[in-house]
Amino acid sequence: MLNLQRLAIFAAVVEAGSFTAAAAALGQTKAVVSFNVKQLENELGVSLLARSTRRLSLTDAGERFYQRSLQLLQEAENVLDDVRRDHHGLSGVLRITSTPEYGAQVVVPALAAFSRQHPRLRIQHVSSSYHADLISERFDVAIRLGQLADSSHRAALIDSFAIFPVAAPGYLADRPIHSLTDLAQAQWIAHSRLSSPLSWLVATPQREAVLFKVADAATLTGDSAAALLAFALHGTGVALLPAWLAQPEIDAGRLQRLLPDHRFPEQSIYALYPNTRHVPEKVRAFIDFLRARVARGE
């Protein structure tokens, strides 16, 4: 039978990169840490760590076991949190990641309200434009926008949103856009992390679906919606932006929506969470809470 404490010590060694650093993080002696890892290797009958004078590295078996250890430790923590919840309400740690833009506008306000309802729950929010690995970085929930890639995780649909092309009035004064042809020949600002940022299926006013492709390569690229928005506001070209991000700038007159009678494909918002046997109540509760807030337009 696996000893969860030994799994936690092994994971700490991997994350710290040495027995000495792990011992300091755990508040234990180096000898205790080393002994527990050695015992774990003896019980499994394999070497988990390759030791050298300079550093520790995981063996192939160690890499596989480390990933499974993280899952087991997370499931154990989830079970404990739910047992405590029966007596004291939601507790433990809820760790969530989202893009900076959607996080600031929607996720963080929702987490603040959720925290007021569950004061014993410690909440950690991490803003990132990159898709973090939920297991290795120990996230309970990742809020993802756009098309969902194939994944072993579970996904709950939160909402959908429109996207549309926008440009600054100064740019349009020199290069007006009245048709899809004009739009295709414009200077574009593209999202660098999209597989095909300049090719979209567009619904025309006649309800025909046409494949829209930008004529030339993007003039500028950025790795976040905020960067695209900033480029557009500075009059450098056309950007395709989420309605929830662009609309305030359109209302203020700093951007103009282009070809409003055309429809680009709606994008979805998902809450992604690890596919474990035991889904913690804090995860279920927050996803339901966020979905309800979005549905109310908050």
TrEMBL record:
Start and end residues of each HTH lysR-type domain: 2-59
PROSITE patterns: HTH_LYSR
GO molecular function: DNA-binding transcription factor activity; sequence-specific DNA binding
Family: Belongs to the LysR transcriptional regulatory family.
Protein name listed in UniProt: LysR substrate-binding domain-containing protein
Keywords assigned by UniProt, alphabetized: DNA-binding, Repressor, Signal, Transcription, Transcription regulation
Species this protein is from: Serratia nevei
GO BP of this protein: DNA-templated transcription
Highest taxon of the lineage: Bacteria
